[in-house]
Amino acid sequence: MTPQRHSDTLGEKENQGTMPKHVAIILDGNRRWAKKNGLKIAEGQEAGCRRALDMTEDVFIEGINTVSLFAFSTENWRRPQRYMLIFPFFFRQKNKVTVIGKRKNIPASLGDAILEVEEATKSYLIMALDYSGRLDILQACKSLAEKAKNGLIQAEDIDEKLMENELMTKCSEFPIPDLLIRTGGEQRINNFFLWQSAYTELYFPTILWPEFGKADYLEALTWYQQREKRFGLRV
Length: 235
Prior knowledge:
The protein has 235 residues and is an alpha/beta fold. It contains eight helices and six strands; from the N terminus they run αβααβαβαβααββα.
């Protein structure tokens, strides 16, 4: 969905319908923003991180319990690894953070920052770093297979709930995103939350992530509130 922008107040938006419990955001457009502004790619990445910092207070509007930010995918390792060194900017804050994804390739300095902020907080701002939706499903299947092998569960006991309890988003009270926003205009989810997004509302604004502000976020929430959610059922 490519939205049409209009102006509403926060109060008007909150009264239009049910707020999502979990909002996921794919932070796309940093490189294109840098190119558009005649800047280096690294400067675009830094601008994207700063935008994430600026938005961390605004995203937890009343009713929203969990926000997930897809900042760095497993596939992004094909790009120069120095970009990972920018992410510590995000952890110099007071917000509560949980990090999902593989960690063995993350620089030690960033890994230390992640551990420090996780130990200090227990909330549901989820940062996906070195994350892959396929690998998330695969590791969950392996974990269930191991439990079945060891007699902890029976194969016939495996259902969607058990599967979700093995996914990396099990850290949240609301692991399934109600709304997924991808900035930058691309209309795909790029290996992010593949299991979790089966019935998620997908919103694709054309604005690049470093330019995505509070008004744009509220526009996405208004769009969500106006959607009729059937979860695969005919009404």
